[in-house]
Amino acid sequence: MPNVMSIETVALDDANSELVLIDQTQLPGRVEILRLRTQEEIREAIYLLKVRGAPAIGVAAAFGIYLAAKELQTDDYSEFLRLFDERRAWLEAARPTAVNLAWALRRMQLVVEENPQKSVGELKTLLLKECAAIKNEDTEMCRMIGEHGLTVLKDGCGILTHCNAGQLATSKYGTALAPIHLGRERGMHFRVYTDETRPLLQGARLSAFELMADGVDTTVICDNMASQVMKNGWIDAVFVGCDRVAANGDACNKIGTSGVAILAKHYGIPFYVLGPTSTIDLDTPTGNDIPIEERPAHEVTEMWYEKRMAPEGVKVYNPAFDVTDHELITGIITEHGIAKPPYTESLRALFTKNN
Ligand code: MRU
After folding, report:
1. What is the pTM (predicted TM-score) of this model?
2. Is the C-beta atom of 52 inside 6 A of ligand 1?
3. Which atom in ligand 1 lies closest to the alpha carbon of residue 321?
4. Among 31, 164, 193, 305, which has the minimal tally of Cβ within 10 Å of its Cβ?
């Protein structure tokens, strides 16, 4: 089986007009590369989590909308803009919580809106440049998150993570796992405990897979074992990713993250959220304003089981994300540095300083 660390999570094959992805629903059993051409296939891949993780969704959507634009036959600017906007809105509705999806599509849309004097052919070329830039910037942001994250870790320490905020969730390195991958490049060793992350098992299937591929000492635990592992003294820091950080520092991430933060506070363990500034949404005042995606019941009752594990007809609640209160967060590690409380000021300062 090819080493997943050497395969690109999301790529564009412009010559063949294809979005190229690792199908994350097949991991760890099979490394299958998908080549998607139609908008329906691309939207479905995002909805079904074949590509997932906030930054990777953003990059996939940027490539996807470029492929949509490339197909548009009109030479008329207004008609091009109208059709582009229609396809953008449709793709954006695939998943509501991770702000990177809307953010990347908005960047692509601005290219069209800000260049009404250009021909449709020229707009398509500019759109290609923009989606390639979104991916390249993502790689660089993740590398820098890794650099800043490493400043709070010691060689040999124990880290607990939830969901997958690794290379599979981004263009390279990941966010929460970036310091670990970067540390590995420098010969460092970490012990990583990964929550399995019910119901879609991103921790057991994906984080464990990519960490082991990178030679990291990896232990999978069920979500309800985190307290015991912390009590044993095995965890020096919790590192998690984020799908959207509100202006006050409330951080939305995979369901179960807020429980881990509450446990970390109980045991006095630092709890860090790692993400690029593209995941910080200053237009969303608090975590209560973040839309939380709800997913189908079968993900809880039968998916990944050999047979159904809950009675037919039982009610199921399946929110895909939760919000960790900013008071539980030790620091928010971005490509520009580590924001500390009070987040209302520190997050705004990050943007003002770096724009
Ligand atoms: O539903 P998913 O698998 O897309 O959820 C992913 C997460 O919650 C990640 O932690 C988050 O997107 C950050 S990825 C760098």
Report:
1. 0.97
2. yes
3. 8
4. 305
